[in-house]
Amino acid sequence: MSDTRRRVKVYTLNEDRQWDDRGTGHVSSTFVERLKGISLLVRAESDGSLLLESKISPNTAYQKQQDTLIVWSEADNYDLALSFQEKAGCDEIWEKICQVQGKDPALDITQDPIDESEEDHFEEIPETTHLVELPPCELGRLEEIADLVTSVLSSPIRREKLALALMSEGYIKKLLGLFRVCEDLDNREGLHHLYEIVRGVLFLNKAALFEVMFSDDCIMDVVGCLEYDPALVQPKRHREFLTKTAKFKEVIPITDSELRQKIHQTYRVQYIQDIILPTPSVFEENFLSTLTSFIFFNKVEIVSMLQEDEKFLTEVFAQLTDEATEESKRRELVNFVKEFCAFSQTLQPQNRDAFYKTLANLGILPALEIVMGMDDLQVRAAAIDIFSYLVEFSPSMVREFVMQEPQQTEDDVLLINVVIKQMICDSDPELGGAVQLMGLLRTLIDPENMLASTNKTEKTEFLSFFYKYCMHVLTAPLLANTAHDKNSKDHPEGSAKINPVCPDNFQTAQLLALILELLTFCVEHHTYHIKTYIMNKDLLRRVLVLMNSKHTFLALCALRFMRRIIGLKDEYYNRYIIKGNLFEPVINALLDNGTRYNLLNSAIIELFEFIKVEDIKSLIAHIVDNFYKALESIEYVQTFKGLKGRYEQEKDRQSQKLNRYRRDARSLDEDEELWFNDEDEDEDGEAVERRMDDDFSDSYEKFMEAKKGAANGANGANNAKSATIPPASPAVTSNTSSSSVKTVALPATPVVKTALVGLVDYPDDEDEEEEDEEEEQSPRKRPRLSS
């Protein structure tokens, strides 16, 4: 199984016409009893599992492409490919396939496929199903050849026949020879015909033809033919661009000639597909699927060859981090790594995983840390692109690296801090780089992509690291731009506060908006860590300074930050807001906005509407007690009147609750008389009386003490004119049963509870009914129960 000749990758073509890698293994051809025939078997090199079991059917069309590929279709829309590591292995399996089908191994296709849609018409057009006869390759016959090539594109059968004819007679090279003659003679009509011919041959979608057309000695002539589009007045100069403008730069000399040739070929074929050929129509979109596959397999091969050359990549990273390396050379090295990563996007997930692990082992992250801190803008931009590839592929790999750094370096040069500083110092007026970096930071600190990690403590460890070493760097511009707002409480309510530090510079405002967006994300996802940070730094007060900014988008970002905090309905945050009187800047912004009906107005009203609908009692009481006078004139929405209504309803409910527990002296006297009557009824037995003597004396003394205390409380309540709530009511206790101990006391401060409708059966009433039931078992009635 260690034979590298038989080592292959198995690919299947998906619905998007992209090749999916099914794994790497070793191929063999053997008789399978179950399938009743010679079959291709591929067993995975990792665990020996069966990746492919495919019977070599006599009627299946197999194609050999690029000397190391065998492609075939097993069913409708199910294409398979074997990519061999070595040409010898491909030739060996190809001979076996041809032997089973009785075909000549010299051919690159074993069958002539018949399109099902044309089978019904097979008898109607017998003349077109025979071999296509090509006209002689002469200047005078170019128009005839062009018409023939164009006419077969609509018929899959005729496309196959024409492709075989072109291959068998070496026709392509003869046509390209005519191109050179036409160009020397400046024969525009002939050149226009050659454009149609070459374009049509590309649309035949045959890998065997591509191998000829894209070889070193033919590809520039193919590009030349495609310059003479009849729709253009003057031909394009694609060859001039490819030979003079486009330069192949070797940052480290590539000694492998095959690799160099593959790189040149891939670049030129990609240029043909992306630049020269017009965008295919809906009817033509599948004509170039084989061309896409050709480029795909080339890129896979290039990445694999470079990845296996450890000496080459080691030298790249050594020069990249070497201080002696010239700036121009370093720029080329970074651009090479960037393009290398871009090529890797064509790899399948498991291969991409191995690719990035190779880069990580070679020191890609420490290298980026150095290059991202350099002054060269192009180098920094390319380094950011590379960093984005790494973060998008594996945030955990980046997190693991940065958590090891504090043991080896200072805070200032930590990779994440370098990224944050790049974001803060972005010189682009539109902050394009800062926006990209903010997205990468957000990915790194997102707990959602930490959950799937095998390391269960990754979330806790990384967030602790981030808030300890990096959060102060992120918030530094925000704190610096809001540092001197010390006298906000001195401003009269409703005044327009102009803070001299509040950023008027558009670029600074944009940067602060990005930072606030990231902090808002933290509030939503980090709970404990961000809560501690906000409390310790009094961060919300500093953020709300930005409500004064002349840039409305920045004021909205500050408001959104507060809205997310309130949206958590966390009483710790609510107490922090109340203690700091942090609604004041928001209400001032609402009043300063006046009658303008804009986004700021709507966002502030939505904040208060949320508090009302969610019935956040502590905030409602704070807003009404402190700001209602300033807000009562706002009548175009009912939000603030609704807050006041809820506040009043809660006060009424608390007052009613108090009255249920309040007793007067008359009710106590009636209870006392009832108690004595109950005692008289119990005097008919001396044994019972003797047994009750001790209990009675103790209970009676406690009852009288309770009576006096309750009478005093009731008299005090009757004399009072206001509906204030006493700090406490006397407690009634029993020494006979611990379950009867009940404190009938109200809290010193009412718990604010508001209802939309006055007549509501509140949940608290159930507790009060339970208290009433327990009072029925109070000590003053206990002698009756014991008689």
From TrEMBL:
Residues 144-649 form the Serine/threonine-protein phosphatase 4 regulatory subunit 3-like central domain. InterPro entries: ARM-like, ARM-type_fold, EVH1_PP4R3, P4R3-like_central_dom, PH-like_dom_sf, PP4R3-like. Residues 5-101 form the PP4R3 EVH1-like domain. Residues 672-692, 711-787 are annotated as: Disordered. Gene3D superfamilies: Leucine-rich Repeat Variant, Pleckstrin-homology domain (PH domain)/Phosphotyrosine-binding domain (PTB). Keywords: Coiled coil. Residues 711-721, 730-745 have a biased composition (Low complexity). Pfam families: EVH1_PP4R3, PP4R3. The keyword Transmembrane helix does not apply. Residues 644-671 form a coiled coil. The keyword Transit peptide does not apply. Belongs to the SMEK family. This is Serine/threonine-protein phosphatase 4 regulatory subunit 3-B. It comes from Ataeniobius toweri. The gene is PPP4R3BB.
